[in-house]
């Protein structure tokens, strides 16, 4: 059915359930389908040539517009909070206030750096960011078959939009909800717009007020793509979901986190820098029979 599911990176706890879901989504057809995806470390790569790829925040943190002191402070925050973010032994209740603390402190530091709106394209161009292998096929297939692609990210919206724009795949079916920068009349960053989106509030609490989910109420089949346990709630606001297939990229601390990911995601992709499996499933679902 989907040869890519035989890859050695693929782990599935309940294969029959997954095959049933894929068949049901195919039966409903492309007109009932929507894709809801995280951005950082899901559509973008986790590793690049043996090093960590930057998140949309890291692209700014490491850029030439940030002072050396600012860079050090932002790196210290990352080293303190990232292990908390991915710790499988801490509860979400424990993590949530700490994530608010991380994002708030990082956004305050970034807002002191006089970042210019006009510098964003160059900042992205000069960064090491890479989209996962196969991103072209993913965006092209969804565009060709008019399948909405909703990117729900706790990263920086202005940066990730620029990444997909520079990759020439920012098609009209792509819609982004993320943290956006607020610039003053001279185009200088003054703060970030609310609501603040962090790893563990990606749900309808931040989507209330966006008409987006209501518009998609007829799209009752969902393919959800994420890399964090926080991404699992991204579809919570969608009314009348019939079939939801959750695909999780397990990038870091694979052994420690495998059990929780297998319980939560239908398909787990371990240290897989490609979109092969997602593309294979979409090819099967969207291919005319
Ligand atoms: N100051 C920060 C805050 C968060 N991050 C990372 O960004 C990721 C969030 O973006 P998604 O598209 O994945 O929702 C998150 O996993 C954090 O690790 C960061 O790098 N710097
Ligand atoms: Mg992510």
Question: Please, could you describe this protein's structure?
Answer:
A hairpin with a 5-residue loop joins strand 7 (181-183) and strand 8. The protein has helices at residues 15-28, 56-61, 68-85, 92-111, 120-125, 135-144, 157-166, 204-207, 212-215, 254-264, 276-286; strands at 10-11, 33-37, 47-48, 51-52, 149-156, 174-179, 181-183, 189-192, 221-226, 243-250, 267-270. The two termini are 13 Å apart. It has 289 residues and is of the alpha/beta class. The strands form three sheets. It has a seven-stranded mixed beta sheet, with helices on both faces. It has a two-stranded antiparallel ribbon with strand order 3-4. The chain has two domains: 3-47 and 130-286, Rossmann fold; 51-125, DNA polymerase, domain 1, CATH 1.10.150.340.
**Total DSSP E strands:** 11
Q: How many helical stretches?
A: 11
Tell me which CATH architecture of the largest domain applies here.
3-Layer(aba) Sandwich
Order of helices and strands: EHEEEHHHHHEHEEEHHEEHEH
